[in-house]
User: Fold these one by one.
Assistant:
Number 1:
Amino acid sequence: MNRLRAYLKSYRRESILAPAFKMLEALFDLFVPLIVARMINVGIGESSPAVIKQCFFLLLALALTGLVCSFAAQYFAARAATGCAARMRRDLIAHIYALDASRLDAIGEDTLITRMTGDINQVQNGLNLFLRLFLRSPFIVFGAMIMAFAVNARVSVIFVFTILLLSVIVFTLMKRTSPMYRRIQAVLDKLTLHTRENLSGVRVIRAFGREEDEKRAFSASNASLTALQNVTGKLSALMNPLTYAAVNLGIVAVLYAGGRGVNAGALKSGDVVALVNYMSQILVELIKLANLIVTLSRAGASMSRVAAVLDTEPGMDFPEMEQSCSETDAAVEFDNVSFKYGGAGAESLTDVTFSVSAGSTVGVIGGTGSGKTTLVSLINRMYDASAGEVRLFGVPVREMTKSRVRGLVAVVPQKAQLFSGTVRSNLLMGNRTAADVELWDALEKAQAAEFVRAKPLGLDEKVSQGGRNFSGGQRQRLTIARALAKNASVLILDDSASALDFATDAALRKALNALHGRVTAFIVSQRTSSLRHADMILVLEDGRLIGKGTHAELLERCPVYREIHESQYRKEDAE
């Protein structure tokens, strides 16, 4: 909650004005039963039309003034709540971008999505109600009790016992339901994960005929969430009937004691009506307070989950000062580098050492799970090495600023990822100032210019979410063009030509070879034909570097590489 208070400091004026206007409205409401009592006791009891008219116009004025105060309170509360939620979302997304890949892996994408949307919405709703009711409801409850004592102290003792009983009911139920709401949010995370996996993998599920299995699995997760919500909902549902019962019993007691007082001449009819009105006000406000507590319980659980992400410290720090790079030094160096993913039992890379001169083309090959993607992910510092040191142009990557590291390296990931927008907006992600000539040059080198020109709008052709309106091969070529448009010193292609046919792959390799001397390229591939012209090929097996050299050298002295090549050569020869 300290973090929420920090956000409210920016809306201090609204946070004061919202409850202040609600307090004014509540104050006017407390005077209503007294005016009604005067109307009955004096205006009706003593047949005084002037008093009745006076009381009527006074009630009307209080109602109109209260309405204005209510609108003002709602405006300021909504302004503060939506403003805090907007800032919280902004800070959350900024913090997520600041987290390293290992932290994001540990938290999980499904959890981040739920906290960015549902949790912050719960906090916004809770804050809105809190600013409007956190002072009004207690003020009305205790104010009504004090005003009741002003009417008749003896009968008003009933109010004390009623309020104590209601407090026990409300706080007991709140204590039981608060942890349940936290559990609901945790189960909701799992359901969101299941939904996300089903939606992203719907084609695979259909291809393997697993629709019924996934339906059953989803139904089980949904049933678990529903059962927990039902239990929590039943407990929360007890709030209204129990509070109504307690207050109605209080009203019966007030009517009984008030009737006896009227018969004895100690009370007037209007006083009894005023006492009943005060008891009714307590009932209404306690119902509001009960609902507020339920909402605040949810908001508190959601705020704790949002704060947990915001309190997660990044696993790597970047220096603020720029480090100079010397183009004469080796472009990339690995010095006894080892790496282990968080929670993994074994290392993904072990004692990897190599040096690549600037302008070279390096191939990376190995079996599935050998550590190829992990190796290239350390170059642009997506992860930090567990041991050893990675250097770019002679400078350890740990000593380089984030903008410098990311500016030097362009990456084409394994999974082609495009963003909704246009072809142009996707290509400009790495180089915002690139001219159309540069974009078309990048498309030509990536073998993507032909199909982009065939589109009616060319560079301004729309790209749907994830690039779904392009084929797999087209998406890969566009992601390669995006990396080339960046004009980075180091280019990493992480198995980025897997969806390309041999002819397109060969044309792409020829275009990349033309960059030789200007760009240091790392090409991760399963095909030896894609790597045979590389200046150096790294062969990985179980996270260890077991071979390093040219294609001819590795065929001669690296059995693993030779086995990979011969298995593919026979297959390609047959084709």
Number 2:
Amino acid sequence: MKQRKLLIALTALLLVAVPAMAVFTGMDLDATLSNLRRELSYDYRQKTQIQKQLQEQYEVQHRQMVEIAKKCNDLSLMLYSQKQEYTFDVSYALEKVTQEYENFNKNRTPYDRIVGNLDIDINRYARLIESLRRLPPELEDLDVVPDSLAYHNDTLDAHLLHNASLLQQELEEKVDAITAMTQVQDTSATEEAVPAFILSEQGQRDRDTCLFYASELLMMYAASREMAMADSTHYQEARLRLEESYKYAREYYDIIENKVFVEGQIPWTTILTHPGRYWREARQAVGEKYRLSLVWKALYSDTVDYSNEQIANDNMLSNSARVYWWVIYILAFFILWGLSALILWPLYRFIKPLGNWIQKEQKPYIALLLACVLFLILSYESNLDDIARKALSIIQTFLGLLIAINTALLIRLNPSKLRDGVRMYMPTIITALIVISCRVLFVPNAFLNFVFPPLLLAMAVWQLTVNLRYGPKADTTDMVVGWVSFGITAIATVVGWAGYIFLALIILAWWYVQLAIILGIATIWDLTLLYKEKRLDKRVETYKARLTYVPEQAKDKLLFGATWFYDLIREVLIPMLVLGTIPTCVYWALDIFEFRDLYIQIFMEPFFSPGGGEGIRISLYSVLLLTFLFFLFRYVNKAAHTIFRTLKYRNFLRKNKRPVVRNDEINLSLGDSLINVTVWFIYAYWVIIKLNIPTGSLGLIAGGLSAGIGLALKDIINNFIYGIQLRRPGRLPGGLPQYLAV
């Protein structure tokens, strides 16, 4: 059956391969032309059928190219029109240019390769047409092919022109001779006398058909090449313009980062010396940034169209409208909160188990949780510009973190402590809302310099007050986190008063994200403790009761089979989460303010690289990754030891046919040592790879250590040998003479 299937497959393959290889066989010229006609006819039909599809693809590609060109122009105008006093606007423009440049290079259309492939096909068909034309009897110049697409060989053309009359006369004489011979000789003799290089009538018809198909295909490829060349020119112009903007953005990035993190803004102590002047500058900056009277035109006028280019480019109108939309978002959220409470009220009233299970103190926060979820669902909108989409993304991130905080408190805290716990975190939540409001509204620097430092001081005082008043009543974890929040807010206050406003904003945004994750980890920790109390302790006792074949003191080392899940969470998952949240929270905080490249500089770039690119490279990312691997390998090592001990005990019992193993009856130290060496050797290998430690230097270090260890152990080895001598005087173990011990 298998041979039959193989034979059928080979037969089908040959049937497919014979037409494709017909041109390459040793057939005569007429047969070759017949096969070529079939192939060109097939290619022509295929090309004609997909021509409409190719045209649609080209139109889509052309529209994408036009969009890229327009986006490059828009980005250039947006980038070069930003004032340096508006750091939020500048950082957004710089980040947008950088992002578009990276996307452009990632999704770059290969016009050069497309044009090159078309050139190959055009040249191939042009040469094929010229070869078909010159087959005897040779045709005159073809009018269907433009001279620019025709293939020219000047050397061959000059030679043929010089011998044209002789060739034509010779051809006519041979044709006359063939005609005379056909009247006397039979058909077979005539066929043998026909010169091989003269086409028959059927061959000439096939040649004409091949010329038609080849010329049509040549014109199709030429038209495609012309369109691709036109788009390629515009595409290269857009690329050069975007590259120019990107270089300018990178230079400007360095300036902005230097002002934000090194030079800073105006210290608050300096502002206090001339408060009136700086207040006027803040009011003037707000007036230039926002003109609230224009908002009514944007919101209520029937003539306003946000898709209109003039309105879209009116920064003052868009900034003013952004203020009103932000107020509307906040009001909508509180309305949703009230509606959520109304939706949940009949559920509590008519579903008795739900009403009895949920306490009165928990109901407002469950309604808050439902309001956040509804807002996230209803706020989804795809038809937004980039600025609005970014603002909506920041709002959704804030609400997602608020959901995490709220859920963690509902799970962890008793209803009696819930309100006090929420009060401990309220200053941090409100501070985070103020921070993202400054980012969403693109608040000018002058206003931030004047208003934000005293606002930070007020938030620090508020956090201190709630810590002193509600901290003793709250849970221990919440009290500790509350004081940490106060410390971070105080640090941000000092930084802000020193003039580093944007650094203070980043610190506060980072802490809000970090707080949500810390509370989530604390919730997981409490749930594991609850799991241990409710189920694991009983399971461990049951598991120990089944370990009747080992002594009591050895049972504690075999409990991994009962505690593996608990150990995985406490010893691997939670430490990884704690460490992993550090870069994650920093990335989110920097991404809010468009300083994403700082994340790469902080975590990805090596802070210790004495040998340059070829030596040791230690970065925060590599340190965190190796720490993750340490927790993982430690867990694997613990599991391997338990498995080894269990197998060793069972093997001993099976061989000796005994029910119990006595103390120190099995030597486990060698196996434990081998497991330790194997596991940590693999970990050391990963350390060497990730830190790019040169192996040559490791060889020198290993050689030095071995020599040092050998010298250090010399006396110990000698004492060991002498001890053996004293035990068996005269001969060493194995019958060796005593003098060999020296």
Number 3:
Amino acid sequence: MNKLDAKKRIEELNKILLEASEAYYNEDREIMSNFEYDKLYDELKELEDKFDIHMSNSLTQNVGYTAAEFLPKVRHEKPMLSLDKTKDRGVLRDFIGDRDGVLSYKLDGLTIVLTYENGKFKSGVTRGNGEIGEDISNNIPAFTNVPLKISYKGHLILRGEAIITYSDFKKINDEMNDGLEKYKNPRNLCSGSVRQLDPNITKKRNVKLVIFSLVEIGSDKKTKEEEKINATYVNQLDFLDDLGFETVLHKLVNKDNIAETIDWYAKDVVTNDYPSDGLVLMFNDIKYGLSLGNTSKFPRNALAFKWQDETAETILRDIEWSPSRTGLINPVAIFDTVELEGTNVSRASLHNISIMEELKLGIGDKIKVFKANMIIPQVEENLTKSNSFKIPNTCPVCGSKTIVKNNDGVKTLFCENPNCAIKNIKGFENFVSRNCMNIDGISIATIESFIELGFIKEYADLYKLEKYKDQIVNIDGFGEKSYNNIIDAINKSRDTECYRVINSLGILGIGTANAKILAKHFGDDIEKLRKADENELTGINEIGPILAKSIRDYFTDKKNIKIVDDLLSELNIKKSKKIGDLKLEGMTFVITGSLENYENRDELVKVIEDNGGKTASSVSKNTNYLINNDVNSNSSKNKKAKELNIPIINEDDFAKLLK
């Protein structure tokens, strides 16, 4: 390749990578896999170095994303550089040499810079492009764990990573109806949640901030205490811990124990609730680290370690097209089973048609698969690249014609038939689910059979199945016992709570959390909700204009009016307890470990919420009680509770609280 060809390829790579970076960081969507992005980035850097061509707009010369237009822009007092990275453990050992280092998680979220003055929170700014970020100060109080007042009264600047935990991410997705596309990963959801004009969105999504760096403390003339804090990285983190900040999990290492410490992290990351895409190694001696200076892009006092994902080669046997109630048809790769990170894997989401086109997939191709960040199965590379995959022309459920939609460069497949059976099936599946009407024993297969046989067309029909007893008991796989179990479960669900009814209707954008908010606001009176206009609805916290319109559209649709009328005639909606009767009002609980008196964690959460309490996924100073039957365990949550003097109680102690 000559220099002219190299320049053309560099310009092409920059264009592709900048589009992908803009989509990922600013628009919270993914148009190519991480593997493909890294491969193109490495090619770009290699060409630039080889031919000495460095464009001003190249991603190798710039760091971070461009600040979005709708948030005020702020210049950082101190520019933020990216970290150089490696996947080689030996490089980490050589980097630390004979000095002490600190090894911590490299959290996968959105970097935030906080400033405090006179013991009070002053501002919060996103990383942006490293020099200019976005002012999100209004959203910081909505984070779950950021202190707004601290005991230190001097000037303080620190950096942290805004994250949404895997458990909260799953809960948010689980509480969404199929009417909205599920979020792809915690990082994208967090980025969108933090960079909002409305702090209520941030609050609702349980965004946390984990501090990883103290940037500046005090004035130029440091006190002895400030000098001591600034002497080592561990001292800085301990100081921030004492102020009430949650700091990144970290361990002191040297050349002798760094290998075993990396092994410890490799095991811990599999079950750790905090999204992480690697580790960071920093010299513990702050003065020494700063004396090393920077390259044009990287500081020399720290190095990032990216997990070397375990990969396996396998054969792509099929592409399954999975329809949802929204009409979106998702592609899923089916391949010969391989073992990754100790588990058997045979399926991986392909996300959308655009990613399939990039991979040039075809049935029978040899592919490489891995678990992204050691957790989520992904197709990394296609070694065959036959590019022979076919986009189905018809919906695999109803046979109606499909269409390909192109939304800002991302191609997706849709079935637009409003009467597609899967939409009805998924609606009933949602209706009978645990967080809705909680009707045990009715599977998707059962729902499908009942729909095909004409037994059920709308939700109220489930409560009239007794007239089809003779036919049901003669269905393959059924019998008198199965029939009785289903009828008992259906009749049990007649006495229910208002939020369950709201959640079961499948209103676009309304999941469990919002259903509870609506039920509480309208005093468990669904008729008041049905009559509420958009102005009243938008006056409710967490209900914005889009959700308000969705609610009004649902309850003014003639078909839905009949569905709700028929359903309400079959139900007895119980009133919630009044505030004075709520024994756990104002209390926040964290649950960990196995349970003995409750079938599962959801059942215990329901008891807490029914009695006015709240639950959280991690222990903080706002926690009132940690529930753990193993009170003396050395779990991280127990340790945190003891540090904060938060009572650790077992189920028997909890029962006493209720009495």
